[in-house]
UniProtKB/TrEMBL annotation:
It comes from the Bacteria. This is Sporulation protein SpoOM. InterPro entries: Spore_0_M. It comes from Cytobacillus horneckiae. It holds the Pfam family Spo0M.
Length: 256
């Protein structure tokens, strides 16, 4: 019977199981994520080589003019070294770690989840996925609210593969896309694209792409040659929050 149970466990039947419970509600980039990993033994004793917690998201990439979605790893944490989980034993492993500053926020199409994996030799590796809610931090909120105050509406938010010149730690960035629906930029801009590169809770590089609306023959020619787009990088800090709208308005106005 013991041998039969080993055979079943090798394909996941009667093997150890894992369940991760997140203690945090909404978190934000750079904040602490806490929880507990519950490991439950199966019908036989098993040696667990490693337990890994991975923060993951998905992003759009393109190959041969075909777009598709792939999973990307934001962070990986090793929770435990080798140990034996006995048959029917319950073992709880608490964890706490800071999310990377470049963790995407869960707005629009963007999803973030924690994947927990047990590494068991010569056996099926149990896993567990748990969705997370990642909110913008105060600096990001200030920028997003200010863009809204300037008459822009958020149209889409998604993670996309970044061109090599734009990449930092990760191969993708989270892009916020806006359209002007009121105010001074309505009818003058096709869209505004924003990417955050957080340096800390209180500072960020802001990448803006301003897409001007074609007006007249010269405008249409510029659009056809992709000359109607301007890219800008500015630094924002928590000191800018009281006057964020006027700062962004001044910057964007220079490129229309």
């Amino acid at each position: 019977m013991a041998l039969f149970n080993k055979v079943l466990a090798s394909v996941g039947i009667g093997a150890a199981k894992v369940d991760t419970k997140l203690h945090s509600g909404a978190v934000y980039p750079g904040s602490k994520l806490e929880g507990i990993v519950e490991v439950r033994g199966g019908k036989i004793d098993q040696e667990i080589d490693d337990i890994y917690l991975k923060v993951q998201t998905s992003y759009e990439t393109e190959k041969d003019d075909h777009k598709y979605s792939v999973n990307g790893e934001v962070a990986r944490f090793r929770l435990a070294e080798s140990f034996i989980i006995k048959a029917n034993e319950a073992k709880d492993i608490p964890f706490a770690f800071n999310l990377p500053l470049d963790t995407p926020v869960t707005i629009g199409k963007s999803r973030v989840w924690v994947s927990t994996e047990l590494d068991i030799k010569k056996a099926f590796d149990p896993s567990d996925n748990d969705s997370m809610k990642v909110a913008p931090n105060k600096l990001m909120e200030s920028v997003l609210h200010s863009i809204n105050d300037l008459g822009f509406r958020m149209r889409e938010v998604e993670c996309e593969e970044a061109p090599k010149w734009m990449r930092r730690r990760l191969p993708f960035v989270q892009e916020f896309e806006f359209v002007a629906v009121s105010g001074q930029f309505r009818g003058r801009l096709d869209e505004l694209e924003v990417v955050f590169f957080l340096e800390s809770d209180n500072a960020a590089d802001l990448f803006l792409q301003v897409d001007r609306r074609a007006r007249g023959l010269r405008g249409f020619l510029s659009e056809a040659l992709s000359m109607d787009e301007s890219t800008i990088t500015i630094k924002v800090t928590s000191d800018d929050i009281p006057n964020m709208s006027s700062k962004l308005q001044s910057v964007i106005s220079q490129y229309i």
